[in-house]
Write a structure and sequence with these properties.
single chain; 253 residues; mainly alpha; 12 helices
Length: 253
Amino acid sequence: MQDIFGAVSYWVGWDNFINLFADPTYIQSIYTTLYFAFWVTLLGLMISLLLAFFIQKIVRASLYYRTALILPYAISPIVVGVLWTFMFSPSSGVITYWLKKLGIDWNYQMDADHAMWLVIMASIWKQLSYNFIFFYAGLQAIPKSLIEAAAIDGAGPWRRFFTIQLPLLGPTTFFLCVINIVYVFFDTFAIIDALTHGGPGKATSTLVYRIYFDGFKAMDYGSSAAQSVILMLFVLLLTVIQFRYIDRKGKGQ
């Protein structure tokens, strides 16, 4: 434990970790992070896979479509947060304006559900390009002879997709699943900070944002350090699972 000026430090043992798990707001931040990670990963992978599937069917101007889908990855997370803040601003946002025309009163600054889904949508959009590139490459790597043989046997496009292409994309999907979870745990901090500042209340305060808030705003360095260790261990566990899975698939082949 250390004071905010760094002049006094003393050993507290496991107290920082014990206090963390006794704090209901920290437990809530764990649930918030898991909820956030689940939807960003699930919807992000589904949308990216569908886009990759349809893009490979396009013959004319496919280069322009691929370029447009890759562009969001070149934008920094903080810029993404600012961009979505302007679009969904309760008072002057262009998308908020049209939502009001449809009878939807959108206000992410007051509604916790709106705030959560706003950061989910912004995070999905930022990561969409990364997922799309891998899925598109994976689909291109599947031998066309398999698809043609299934088509000759009478299988339609969707049946070929679910019975041939999707199973063969299993390793790619698992890899992207792990990468997206790590992305949610670390790289979405700037998006959340620019959009909601962890609010309203603590509705969008994920683990990485809480580390920042406790360390740099609340000046509780001991708690922030303990949270960093817990987050590191979780991501390390994901990495170990990923490498074990890949190693098992490699030996199976």
